[in-house]
Design brief:
six-stranded mixed sheet, binds acetoacetyl-coenzyme A, alpha/beta, single chain, four-stranded mixed sheet, 12 helices, 16% strand
Length: 257
């Protein structure tokens, strides 16, 4: 049987590939559970400092698997806790996760990308929340994360029209951190992930946690959280090493403590 999720390591980076090319990487339980298991393994692996989720040239993921869910009734969706049960593992990852998106990231695929900490897009990428065309709505965070990323006007436009947004528009709107030529996407994303993974992991995690706090709290609460975590960083051997190395004009050797 084909493995619908492949995982491999590249130095200190864990790479997760969605592998259902025949279905534009549509997300069914096997795919979502596979992504969750891969994240579990990379989170537990002390050698890994950053993760990348990607698809193939044509699709990151074209959404939740429509055939899989089309006959759900309300009680099934509710009782099986559809989406919440297994889709949100990426949200709880403490190590950073980069989505490397080429081709379609639609519906649940766009939502999965937005659950990641940042999106690097190939110039071929197309983002959209076309659920309205199916008689439903985004159900994996699209109505909440998209306005936070690109503002209300564009989020309304995308979710109500069902139109797709190309990589240039996505970058201009703030959805995407970098746009990269399609044939360089994976290489460049892995390079960026290697850079992150070479830093002190506890510091990386503190930065991620602090930025995410910006979306969960008032400015004052967020600033207080940041300040406390910043103060806490002075307890790290890696802070001593990082600053000593700067003063000594040498490369720091971080030990993740
Ligand atoms: N679910 C299941 N199968 C899908 C799929 C999906 N979301 N998207 C594509 N596929 C399948 C197609 O059915 C087709 O399979 P067959 O070859 O067996 O017919 C195969 O992938 C290739 O797709 P197309 O022939 O349609 O390829 P295309 O290049 O003409 O179009 C596309 C590509 C624009 C992505 C088009 O497939 C499409 O519109 N897909 C659906 C996108 C969508 O509506 N996504 C939202 C899903 S709902 C959701 O995600 C809810 C949520 O918030 C959690």
């Amino acid at each position: 049987m084909t493995q619908v999720v492949l995982s491999e390591t590249h130095g200190k980076v864990g790479l997760i590939r969605i592998n259902r090319p025949e279905a534009m990487n549509a997300l069914n339980n096997d795919v979502v559970d596979g992504i969750g298991s891969a994240i579990d393994a990379f989170e537990a692996d002390a050698e890994i400092g950053c993760m990348v989720i990607t698809g193939n040239d044509k699709a990151f993921a074209a959404g939740a698997d429509i055939g899989f869910m089309k006959d759900f009734d309300y009680m099934h969706a509710y009782q099986s806790d559809f989406i919440t049960r297994n889709w949100e593992r990426v949200k709880t990852a403490r190590k950073p996760v980069i989505a490397a998106v080429a081709g379609f990231a639609l519906g649940g695929g766009c939502e999965l990308a937005m659950m990641c900490d940042m999106i690097f897009a190939a110039d071929s990428a197309k983002f959209g929340q076309p659920e309205i065309k199916l008689g439903t709505l985004p159900g994996a965070g699209g109505t909440q994360r998209l306005p936070r990323a690109i503002g209300k006007a564009k989020a309304m436009d995308l979710c109500l029209s069902g139109r797709f947004m190309d990589a240039a528009e996505a970058e201009k709107s703030g959805l995407v951190a970098r746009v990269i030529a399609a044939d360089q996407l994976l290489e460049e994303t892995l390079k960026a992930a290697q850079t992150i993974a070479a830093y002190s992991l506890p510091v990386v995690m503190m930065i991620k946690e602090s930025i995410n706090r910006a979306f969960e709290s008032s400015l004052n609460e967020g600033l207080l959280f940041e300040r406390r975590v910043f103060h806490a960083s002075f307890a790290l051997a890696d802070q001593k090493e990082g600053m000593a190395a700067f003063v000594d004009k040498r490369k720091p050797e971080f030990k993740n403590r």
